[in-house]
Predict the 3D structure of the following.
Amino acid sequence: MVNVPFKPQFLLVCGLSAALVSCSGEGQSSSGSTRFVSIQPIQVCDDFGIFCADLATFEEATRKIWAQANLDVSFLAPNRLNASRFLTIDNQDEFAELAFAGGAGAFGRSPLSTRTSGPINMWFVESIFPFEGFETLGLAWIDQNGVLIDDDILTFNNGTGRLDTVAHEIGHNLGLTHEGFGARGANNLMTDGGFRNSPSSLDDIAPSGARLDQLTDRQIDEVRSSGFARTAPGPAADSAPAELPTTLPPLAEVAPDALPWVAPPKVIPVTDLALLPEAAFAATQAPQPIPNGPAMTLLTAGLLAGYLRWQPRGR
């Protein structure tokens, strides 16, 4: 995601670098048999289902990018979550609640999902970690299920859109980081957005055109071994779950998590979960006018005139 300051809310931020990587080379699509990854989009709306975040899956770009690893990425029919408080994600705990609290299917999640298996649940919201004019376009757990997408990726780059943010965040769920497995190069998909070259069209994406959003062989090996990458399409990739709840369940009545929150031998607190945001972008603002001086000048002149008027005259 432009090189700008990070927000203080980030509890874990990868070190950033524009250095070129030394890796085994750009990944190829001949990486063995096709594996399948399914995505459950979840459109977050207000409590009444009237005002909703925009869905911005950039499906064609996402599929082309992950074809380098011979991953077939499919998107299920969107679910809807009517919960005003999640239209803006203010902190990591709110994201953890969406991703892990409640039972199967809570918060719009696919009932087939677990914390470490798909479909990957992807919430589209209006804002992530807002802070003084900055916004984060994407946020994802590493090697666990859950992605947040800010619908402002639609207006990025004068309306072209940030074509690779969805693919980038999926990569985190598949186990990739901003610097590991050969990332860090400007043309690599998993390099943080502050240093990653963003495609302006499908033609810019590897292996064609400008060859952007490349994957290294090490990255390809990692994602293909992920529990989210299946060896067969399965029902999760071919049909949408039916009769899912669209509203937020009462917190006091939610069922236990689909997978235990306790990971022996200790409880993993939210603050210890690996979480990677895309870099923040400064919102474009019109130049603020500099206060002009006429009023101040007139006031000063009036005071000066009064002062001179009452000064004793020399004889």
Residues 19 and 185 are 6 Å apart (CA to CA). Residues 1-25, 236-246, 248-267 have pLDDT under 50 and may be disordered. The chain has six helices and 13 strands. The radius of gyration is 25 Å.
